[in-house]
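User: what does the whole thing look like in 3D?
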Amino acid sequence: MKTRFVTLMVLPLVAFMISGCEKEKEDPSVTLGAQANATVPGFYSVSLDKTYTMSQAADNTGVIDILCFYEAETGNNIALASPGSGITGIFTGDDMPDNWGIKNTTYFFQTTLTGTQFEAVQDGDVLIETSFDTDNARRKAKDVQVGQVWAFKTQNGTYGLLLATAVTQGTSGTVTFKVRTK
Amino acid sequence: MAKRIRSIALLIIIAFAGCAENEPETTPLILIRSGGAFTADGSAVAPGGALRFGLSVSGGGGAITNLIVKRISDGVTVTETDKGMYVSYGGLDTTLIYTRGYSQIERWVFSVMNSYRDTASVSLTVLKGDGSAWGEISYHPSIRIGLQDNQALPHFVDLHSGSAWDAASVTGHEPDVDMAAFWYLTSGTSSPTLTSLRYMERKEPDDV
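Assistant: Here's the predicted 3D structure for the full assembly of 390 residues, as structure tokens:
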């Protein structure tokens, strides 16, 4: 009888504690694969916060803002660009961005922000926009390194900051980053 | 029965204690903007010159509640701005304009606080530039003008050129006139007064 009482009391309380306690705030990351990565999609829609394989991206060209590629010879290494960046000789096949009807262009600018400063930035902060230097922005974020914070502006005018948190070099490599947008 | 009640009370306390809401760790962020429109760290500005500071602020998870700007020159700290606010979304982007003082080095400190009373600061230094941005000093060794009934001396002065005119000769120079003199009694006290024409226009007849 006593055991049953304790069980009846403890179980609901444990359930209450687990469900009632506030969850840790999630801070999801985006991982993109380079051109030969068969498992990690390499195309990203900022507005939808969604990744796509190249074939999926070819069917959704209007929403693709960022892609990942690897090119050692030019020093690009693991780099971020966009369908409108004019990247050639990297992707192959009918679905490659060269053949797309809509090629959005995203511009990138490497900031001096630290990872800690990035974490302080909230979605919607005007600082995201002011961190983007239009005059010095480029169509590629070359040789992305862990800890770098890049400001970007998409074709539709969305500003963003991304913090690179992991990079694996190679044509099958990946880059992982966190994003804040305005 | 009493044991059960104690057990229930204890479990409830444990349950609520486990869910105690911790105050979030927030870190506001304040950045000084760069670019030609803004005064850069280490730049030299002549006394009297304009200092333009662009600030981008993020509350870091809390609302921005306070912005403080301090000027430290010759060991003296002056609070130039201490502004309360409540910016809960979007952060703050603002340009503040001040005037460079006369000290050799000015250090400017910008601090922000959020609704969790977490703070962040950033600073920059502005050196003293050559010359003066106030403009050249016009020096006129001696200008003699008369009060309103003086028929011998002129009454209206151009402080830039040092020229003075009487009522007849001032025609055509009205835009250049900066100063005139008059005399009146105020509470029985003799009061020779230097003034500008705009001020004289606004005086009531009884005051003159």
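In plain terms: Chain B has two domains: 29-128, 156-207. Helices of chain B lie at 2-18, 197-202.
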